[in-house]
Amino acid sequence: MTLNIFEKRIKAWNEKYPPLSPEILRKINKLVEQYDKTQQVEKDSKVLSITDGTKLVREFKGRRYTVLVLQDGYEFNGSKYKSLSAVANKITGTRWNGKKFFGVA
């Protein structure tokens, strides 16, 4: 049996990253079902809220950056930040919307 391109990508993802939690998988499935019915994506930040302990990863200019989501902020390189925008600004040296920079908006 040969794998199609999507199955190959999923397999590579699963080998590289830990599995998603059942809660996140349910939310993703809910979004996919909604899209299948309406052909539109509802942009509700509450649908995919970021929970404590989540690691956000972003590659920027050839370097990988990881941020840990805390109950009251974010941890990056051993320092605590109040917002993702502050972390994105630290990484890039310019003003960024942190949620967009990390792909969670």
Please render the helix and strand layout as text.
Elements: H1 5-16, H2 22-38, E1 55-60, E2 63-70, E3 73-76, E4 79-81, H3 84-92, H4 98-101
Antiparallel strand pairs: 1-2, 2-3, 3-4
Characterization of the model:
The protein has helices spanning 5-16, 22-38, 84-92, 98-101, and strands at 55-60, 63-70, 73-76, 79-81. The protein is an alpha+beta fold and 105 residues long. The protein has a four-stranded antiparallel sheet with strand order 1-2-3-4, covered by helices on one side. It is globular, with a radius of gyration of 16 Å. The N and C termini lie far apart (37 Å). The mean pLDDT is 85.
Descriptive keywords:
105 residues, alpha+beta, 4 strands, 20% strand, globular
Query: How far do the termini sit from each other?
Result: 37 Å
Q: Specify the helix fraction band.
A: 40-55%
- Which sheet architecture does the biggest sheet show? 4 strands, antiparallel
Tell me the series of helices and strands, N- to C-terminal. HHEEEEHH
Tell me the strand order in the biggest sheet. Answer: 1-2-3-4
Q: Are there runs of 5+ residues with pLDDT below 50, and where?
A: none
Task: State mean pLDDT (0 to 100 scale).
Answer: 85
Estimate the global geometry from the Cα principal axes: globular
How many β-strand runs?
4
Number of helices: 4
Q: What structural category characterises the helix and strand content?
A: alpha+beta
